[in-house]
Amino acid sequence: MNSAPEPANLGAKVNLLGLDLKALEAFCVERSERPFRAAQLLQWIHQRGIADFDQMSNLSKALRVALEADCEIAPPVIVREQRSKDGTCKWVMKTDAENQVETVFIPEESRGTLCISSQVGCALECTFCSTAQQGFNRNLTAAEIIGQLWVAQRELGVGAVTNVVLMGMGEPLLNFNNVVAAINLMLDDHAYGLSKRRVTLSTSGVVPALERLADVVDVSLAVSLHAPTDALRDELVPINRKYPIQQLLAACRRYIGQDPRRKVTIEYVMLDGINDSPLHARQLVRVLSQLRSKVNLIPFNPFPGSDYRCSARETIQRFSDILQAAGLVTTIRKTRGDDIDAACGQLVGQVTDKTRRTIRLSAG
Ligand code: SAH
Predict the structure, then answer these.
(1) 267 CB less than 6 Å from ligand 1?
(2) Residue 340 phi, psi (nearest 5)
(3) Which among 40, 114, 164, 293 is least surrounded, fewest beta carbons within 10 Å?
């Protein structure tokens, strides 16, 4: 697991976009600047969206010149924008010469949700996810993660993004430090000032990292369960072979702690004939009796090369009814942006696959 932020290239400018308050304070002190400069920098960079040091008028001219010389504010670059009929907007953002990730904005009446990526590709091999089919190249830096929000705010205006979900490409808990730095910036009042309940980290269940997360941030948690038994989950979400359901649920319980108002969102993709029977629903009820949770059923979004089909509408409804009858708050996720391949599990970007998975798959 990655335990240190990605090192900056030697000789390259420091990208201030990815530094949270603590890191920026340390950076200021190192340069013999007063620590309160960090908050000022955050406000310029993230609240105002300013990338040009010369416009930062409450900093001394000398400091502005010094920053200009060896720092930069370098966001990812939009290379493609697609708008869905339903208003969903998908951006392909370039992170380096060979790699691109996808970011999706989902407008609703009372909120605007930005779905951001944490890795270029994904190292996990969930069988129903198209990002998984692409293999994995590298972790995004903190600047590349928060940069997706920075760019979205520039495109949409301040206030348009009210919620952020770490549900794009990648497994956020396998890029721990960079994801935490980005979350700190989302929550910081000098930066985006989002409420911690409006930031959701979704994980397939990297248990040791989930244990550590509770000590450093307190955002909402979503877990990709997708199956009520270990036998089935071992197949669909292979990381389950390492961290089976009971361990995962125990880590979830510890994460939400004693507060009776907190719940974990359980994500459950509806795969025709695989995990969608009434028996599965009853098994799920039993499993979740040990955790304060609500369930979000996700209609499977197909992608080229996948053999799965989405469960019929009535099957999803019946599944939902069984959960509801047992007292579980259950919602069916509205599929958004599927006409532009922006729906869950359809994000692919462009990944230079270091796992050679694409080659293994095409060899059959
Ligand atoms: N790696 C993290 C973040 C991805 S979140 C995680 O696994 O939670 C994206 C959500 O969409 C996850 O719940 C994922 O399992 C689900 N998903 C993946 N492929 C899908 C597909 N083809 N159709 C519907 N949901 C899918």
Answers:
(1) yes
(2) -120, 25
(3) 40
